[in-house]
Design a protein that fits this description.
332 residues, alpha/beta, 13 helices, three-stranded antiparallel beta sheet, homodimer, seven-stranded parallel beta sheet, 14 strands
Chain lengths: 332, 332
């Protein structure tokens, strides 16, 4: 291929952000479209918060805090500290004045802008593009949907006495407040009753290749796949869909993916990932530590590439990007 | 009177806050009920902001910034600074990412709590009480209404090209963005189609005396009086309603009151104030600088007290409080 290909990437947060940055070492950012999970979105303090979109935006703008992996560098926490005063007076049953969700002072500006624009009637797609532009990004960032699509987690009510009667809590309560340390009984994906955007459908249909980023297959990629039409489009173009396994040596680089694999009846390694993606994806990139799993992955009907997937090093990133394009048979 | 009287005070922002503090030198704060203008309330960045309630709360908690007269002491502005990035990308016609309204990082916590509680279905009355309690206040602070009651200002569209076709802008746009430096053609009080709270009506009816604080009679006291029933209640108990003139030497201590007096056809001094309040109030306290106006004020049918009304000094505050109670014939 003489001109640079267009790649669409299905994205969660941290792992996807790092992959997008890696991919931009091989093709121009303007040829990269990210379709981003919004199942994690939440409203706190009246503000519309889109954690995965923000993690990706801040990472690609080189403004992410490298130690935390989320939020902005050189951040301060004055508002959150001041909020403690109010957490102490809220009546029983109220969640106002909660401080368990980290919102830095600079980060708040992003939520202010998004909330104000949505209240003005702008779509999340438009607002996301404006925010990316404010950070000088050439990547095309798309929320998976403009509709509310909240992921709910059902847990044991002994683990969260504040949960609804059947144990349902919001994703952020599970992920941040409980630090994803309590067992998940069930996921309820609001995405299944939302509509993917026209822009997302176009990007999935017209890209030279689609990549499933190394994100949690249930709570990051799962909501995108739960949207109407998405799996059918992927299945139809399966030969040009490549996934990167988020599991290395049977564990997630970050987050609760490995535990969820077992909970939902999958082998907690890249073989389980292959089972989850086999119908919509023809090729799985697995980490060198999992070389021994390659043959078992291929039994699921996927071809494999084995390489170092632990991003962050310039050489590793460039190599992973090159091999991803090669796997889709579209070397740049 | 052997037990301490109960006083209800009609309040705007800064001048009222200082008067409430002064009054608490004479009677216990728990006997003081403030009915506070919410015509200045606005929604910015998705947050419900109640400037007069906050100025009063912060002042009575000794947490107000003494130089600015609004907002919290030791404040920082990280969020507002970060918001500039977004103001530069907003589309034409959008007001998202606006930075003209000063919102300090600590102050934001108050707006977060209020917004979250209102979204949970709490009334502004309940939330105001919770916020006062978070600051350890014994005063009873009541918003004048739980309903939206926005004051709109009509200006010349040459003075604000972003105004609606007939020149209508929000009160905060006039007051903060334009620093109340452009002429007002008309005030439109949303309060006239709102309902006073039951608590406010009770406080007006049952207090031993009602005091009209030294606040702007048009945009601070005006909205409270524009609520249904309020003027009738005040007129009925006129002999126990006392006002403190906000004008000293023909000028307002703070804000645009003097200019507005002329605009709306009143003499720009305490005589004009008397004309505005004469039907609902029997006694006007005017500043010693205006001693020469006392006779003219009394021609409107009000009695007068002449004293130093420039609060801030312990002795002046105590004296003003004592004279206010004496004027209502209820020395504590």
């Amino acid at each position: 291929m003489t001109t640079s290909p267009h790649i669409t990437v299905l994205c969660g947060g941290v792992g996807a952000a790092r992959f997008l940055r890696a991919l931009s070492t091989a093709i121009p950012p303007s040829h990269i479209t990210a379709i981003v999970n919004t199942g994690d979105d939440t409203v706190l303090h009246g503000l519309h918060i889109s954690p995965d979109l923000d993690t990706i935006t801040y990472t690609l703008a080189n403004a992410i805090d490298p130690d935390r992996g989320w939020g902005l560098i050189d951040e301060s926490w004055r508002t959150l500290e001041a909020l403690h005063r109010y957490g102490q007076v809220r009546p029983a049953g109220s969640r106002a004045g909660s401080t368990w969700f980290g919102l830095g002072d600079q980060d708040l500006a992003t939520h202010f802008y998004r909330t104000a624009r949505l209240q003005e009637g702008a779509s999340l797609t438009d607002v996301t593009s404006e925010i990316a532009s404010a950070w000088g990004l050439d990547f095309r960032l798309l929320p998976m949907t403009n509709d509310p699509a909240p992921t709910k987690v059902v847990v044991d009510t002994n683990d969260d006495p504040g949960a609804a009667g059947d144990g349902q809590i919001s994703f952020q309560e599970y992920f941040v407040r409980h630090r994803h340390s309590i067992p998940v009984r069930e996921l309820r994906l609001g995405a299944s009753s939302a509509q993917p955007t026209r822009e997302a459908i176009d990007a999935l249909t017209t890209a030279d290749a689609v990549v499933i980023a190394p994100s949690n297959p249930f709570v990051s990629i799962g909501p995108i796949r739960a949207l109407p039409h998405v799996d059918q489009i992927l299945a139809k173009r399966r030969t040009t869909v490549v996934a990167i396994s988020p599991l290395v040596g049977g564990d997630a680089v970050k987050g609760p993916a490995a535990d969820m694999m077992a909970t939902f009846g999958f082998q907690s390694d890249s073989v389980g990932i292959a089972e989850i993606y086999r119908d919509v994806c023809s090729h799985l990139i697995i980490d060198s530590k999992d070389t021994s799993l390659a043959a078992e992955v291929e039994l699921t009907g996927m071809t494999t590439t084995v390489t170092n997937t632990m991003m962050g090093d310039t050489q590793v990133d460039a190599n992973l990007a090159r091999l991803t394009l090669a796997a889709a048979d579209i070397a740049s």
